Amino acid sequence: MLLIGALPEPITSAPLVVFIYLLLILMVAGALASVLLRSTLYAIGAFSATMALVGLLYLTIAPFLLFALQLLVFTTISAALLIALLRETAGLRASSVGPFSREWIIGAAVSAVLLAVVAVVVGATSWPVHVCCALPESFGGTLRDTYTVGLAVVIVGLAASALGSGLLLAAPILPSSRGGGSPTDRRRDRPRGAPR
Amino acid sequence: MSAGLNLVLVGSAALFAIGAFATVARRSAVVALLGTQFMLVAGGIAFVAFARFGLGAANATAGASMALFAGAIAVAELAVGLAMAVLIYRESRSFGVDADGG
């Protein structure tokens, strides 16, 4: 296919460029923290922070509120589900670090500085968010007309995943030689009067 | 100094690489699940970048639609992955996915 016309211009506004660099660096750092942290709870927190940064990046480069809303909902739901999963299984252990220890104070200071940087960028630039009118009017039409098959596949995929995960969770688990099995099975098999 | 397609694609590639590392190298099912989410989001970032800076800018709704689809697939994958993580925990009392359950 012949390329007709020029590509869109890159973003050249200096504060916006700095902001994008900052977002990308923080995004990669958050993802690395999420992968490398040993505490699963902290890993989930870093994951949520990374997703929020991705949402900010979407808003900055392509001001469609849809993306940010989608990511916000997705991050909230996934973090809630993961924390609920931890609570139901391994349990949420309290942090061994006190609320006023040095680590918390340093973390709060770094967070305050980052918030101040964001506030300065928002104040110094015209924040590229259009709440209602940035979406192309034909977006719904494009989804419906051009990507009919894709939309149908996604709907079927979501329904199948919901059904599949429900069936997986409902399936009975037999006790294994590795000490597992469902809690009810273990409770039933334990002799009366035996210590827990 | 400018921010264009290359910069965002580099960020997307870095996120994808981190996700691939988590999926392949970490033994915890939850962290592996987070890794797959990172890979899907990296794909979405690339779609949005091409829609904004690349050839897709002539029809920006294409990139938006693809990113929306990637997000929907991520939600579906998260549901199944969480169910599998619960099953793994019930089986071996840990989230480890290797043979010794570590």
Would you kindly provide a brief summary of this structure?
The complex is a heterodimer of chains A (196) and B (102). With 196 residues, chain A is an all-alpha fold. Chain A is built from 7 helices and no strands.
How can the largest sheet of chain B be summarized? none
Beta content of chain A comes to under 5%
- Strand content of the residues of chain B, in percent? under 5%
Count of domains of chain B: 1
Q: Kindly name the structural category of chain B.
A: mainly alpha
The 3D shape of chain A can be described as flat
Roughly what is the average pLDDT of chain A, rounded to an integer?
67
As for the number of domains of chain A, it is: 2
Q: Which range best describes the helical content of chain B: under 10%, 10-25%, 25-40%, 40-55%, 55-70% or over 70%?
A: over 70%
Q: Give the low-pLDDT segments of chain A.
A: 126-135, 182-190
The helix count of chain A comes to 7
Find the count of extended strands of chain B (DSSP E, 2+ residues): 0
Main beta sheet strand tally, sense and closure of chain A: none
Q: What are the segments of chain B in which pLDDT stays under 50 over at least 5 consecutive residues?
A: none
- The helix-strand sequence of chain A is HHHHHHH
Could you tell me the CATH topology label of chain B: Helix Hairpins
Oligomer: heterodimer
Q: What's the architecture of chain B in CATH terms?
A: Orthogonal Bundle
Overall CATH class of chain B: Mainly Alpha
The amount of helix of chain A comes to 55-70%
